[in-house]
Amino acid sequence: MKRHLNHPVLLAGACVLGFGLTYWMGKNVLSGSLGDSMSSHAQQTSTATLIAGVPDEEICALSTTPCHTTSAQLELDTDIVRPMAPANLSVTWPKLDNDIQELIVELEGHEMMMGVYKAKLTRESDSPLFRGELMLPFCVSDAMTWKGRIIPTTINNDYQPQYISVRMKQ
């Protein structure tokens, strides 16, 4: 007799396992004082706060077609992200100070609470271009949308976040 993996407890467990693995990987990427402060920030951030009150027309849907905002250009190397498969993200943000060397990507599952996924984008030499990799956790849903923001690693709040969404399919 075959058993199918469609029991609600098994589905929830698979999602938690996927997020746990991604969280662990993110902790290794975001080590040091930045990682510590970001971990405490993640514990205080709920789904509603990352993009609360942001109109849909201000959310950049990441894809291979560059998305232009008032201050940046964002582009993903794929139109659809696959779980646990790397996707390269490029952000050109000319108005940022040259001393800002990293951007932080924060994403939350839109259809399902998956916690806060974080990734780091690094500046390419002395250019306004930042690059990094997204590797979203797997889940048993066939597809889901992640929404969030990209923020500079700076103490002051002089820069508006870049609000983004990413479509993920199995």
Descriptive account of the structure:
- The protein is α+β, with helices and mostly antiparallel strands and 170 residues long.
- It has one domain: Immunoglobulin-like (Sandwich).
- Helix content is 23%, strand content 32%.
- The model is unreliable at 1-14, 19-25 and 27-48 (pLDDT under 50).
Please outline the helices and strands.
Layout: H1 8-29, H2 33-44, H3 47-51, E1 60-61, E2 67-68, E3 73-76, E4 87-92, E5 102-109, E6 116-123, E7 129-134, E8 143-152, E9 162-169
Parallel strand pairs: 1-9
Antiparallel strand pairs: 2-3, 3-4, 4-7, 5-6, 5-8, 6-7, 8-9
Characteristic key phrases:
single chain; about 170 residues; alpha+beta; 9-stranded mixed sheet; disordered N terminus
- Secondary-structure element string: HHHEEEEEEEEE
The CATH topology turns out to be: Immunoglobulin-like
Low-confidence stretches: 1-14, 19-25, 27-48
Question: Fraction of residues in helices?
Answer: 10-25%
Biggest sheet, in brief? Answer: 9 strands, mixed
* Beta strand %: 25-35%
Radius of gyration: 16 Å
Question: For the largest beta sheet, what order do the strands appear in spatially?
Answer: 1-9-8-5-6-7-4-3-2
Can you tell me the CATH superfamily? Immunoglobulins
Secondary-structure arrangement, i.e. CATH architecture: Sandwich
CATH class (first level) name: Mainly Beta
Q: How many individual helices?
A: 3
Structural class: alpha+beta
Mean pLDDT: 78
State the domain count. 1
Q: Kindly, what is the distance between the CA atoms of the first and last residues, rounded to a whole number of angstroms? A: 27 Å
* Total beta strands: 9
Q: Sum up the overall morphology in one term.
A: globular
